[in-house]
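User: I'm new to structure prediction. If I give you an amino acid sequence, what do you actually give back? Let's try with this one:
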Amino acid sequence: MKRASPPNFDQSAFKQALSQFATGVTVITTRAESGQLIGITASSFNSVSLDPPLVLWSLATRSASMPVFQANSHYVVNVLAASQLDLCKRFATVKGNRFEGVSHAQGDTGMPVLDGALAWFECHNRSRYQEGDHVIFVGEVERCGVHENVAEISPLVFQNGQFHGLKPL
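Assistant: Good question. You get back a string of structure tokens that encode the predicted 3D arrangement of the chain. For your 169 residues, that looks like this:
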């Protein structure tokens, strides 16, 4: 098998090109063995398979949350609505208890489901793959749901370093 050629670009050019792809924004949540709630903002979410129902997301290997996500049997992918930009920023930047004052419910596996999420996927932590400086998590969806007013709510989207809502064309 032929190997990949060395890149003909630097890391900043790669980041700029990647930033042109608009992605939805999620908060991935779980519970540490100690009971502490853990959550991180991620835009690296994607569907994988309908049968079985599989989704994927990735996390930087240097993330402080990596050991908890690696070890846990379950997590929840919360798809954010445009009105939840504050939650996106909170779970991306706040140090300490990111859940303080954040309204959520406990899913069937005890993992936090964020109130107001556009959609959510409660997942079994099926497999993990280390690739480069990230770990790809594949979750087998055990339960999922959508916001009761999903048709009226705009998703939170990230593109070219900025957050957006969507309107039909």
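You can read the tokens as a compact description of the fold. Here is one thing that stands out. The chain has one domain: 24-151.
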